[in-house]
Amino acid sequence: MKFIINKNELVSAISIVEKFVPSKTPMPTLAGIKFLATEDSLFLTATNLEMGIEYKIYGEDTGLLVKEKGNTVIESKILSNIIRRIDEDIIEFDCNENSANIKSSGFNMVLPCFNVMDFPEISKKNSLKTIKLKQGIFKDMIRKTIYARADEFSSRPQLTGVLVDCKDNILNMVALDGFRIAWSYVELDDLAEDFKVIVPGYTLLEISRIFKDEDESSFEFCYSAGSVEFATENFVITSRVLDGDFIDYKMIMNIEPKLVVKVDANKLRLAVEKAGIIARESSAGNLIKFNIAEGIIEVQAEAESGRISEKVACSTKGQEMLIAFNAGFFLDALKSISEPEIRLEFSDEAGPCIITPVENEHHKNFILPVRLKGEKL
């Protein structure tokens, strides 16, 4: 295998692909990136057996010139660290079964190669269902939900992932950990079949790092039994899916509120942030209180190190209420909202709070309160 390529194009591709190389693995080949040179394209592949990526480099602007077709696997870490430090614009690869000779003007490096036959294939194009969506929209949905998933030590592994639920041509994305739910949904432009799949949280985190904000270009989300694919013009990412069931999030988030509050999202966020600094010092846990009366929501926290109270103007409809929440959970929800005004719905002091941007009904947060003992308004 022999090819010439623009250094910056290769560095850009490796910086994406190397994220899928495991830091520790009993299979030496997985520590490498597979290079496959065809007549006019170069494919870089990496996998940790949980998820994988195939990245395609092609086109005149990449400086790619394939002199000899072939494939090999090169250790990722050394290759990446050295390639990005080469001064020249053009790099040449000359590889055989055992080694890769990498050179540019005045520079030469030889690296050992792994047996390409030991490198596992990542499954692609076996999907039963496919939808198209803009990358920027999907990334925004991830941002609005992924923080609410359970941590990796959860006794319910499915909650470490995010539910992607397509129903009646609406794509829902839902994350929950038993104390809170984050839900975002969009209407699809093209007709799509119904499906449900739980995508691992770490897969969506990598997707969100690769996709660009407000990117109008589309990608294909493909689902088949046991795996999902995210396919763009330049790459295909595959991932296993998680087994298990999600609760009926739509039913749980359908409450009859006894109190509805509309408030400036940024002002409430700043008040919660300040109260959270005190709350973190409390032996009672990261607890903040909302004392809600007509036209005012008072954010309170106290600890051995001090006490804080701040009144935020709002509009209220319903009964007065004193209710407490985990400060971190509430702040996570507020940070996920970009709209200027939010609506808070409360069923009672022991019931959940539903947070919805006033200008965007397609994004909702559900947070369970912390019970207060012996306190009254």
TrEMBL record:
One of its GO terms (cellular component) is cytoplasm. GO terms for biological process: DNA strand elongation involved in DNA replication. It is found in: Cytoplasm. Pfam families: DNA_pol3_beta, DNA_pol3_beta_2, DNA_pol3_beta_3. Residues 256-371 form the DNA polymerase III beta sliding clamp C-terminal domain. Keywords: Cytoplasm, DNA replication, DNA-binding, DNA-directed DNA polymerase, Nucleotidyltransferase, Transferase. Gene3D superfamilies: 3.70.10.10, DNA Polymerase III, subunit A, domain 2. One of its GO terms (molecular function) is DNA-directed DNA polymerase activity. Residues 133-246 form the DNA polymerase III beta sliding clamp central domain. Belongs to the beta sliding clamp family. Forms a ring-shaped head-to-tail homodimer around DNA. This is Beta sliding clamp.
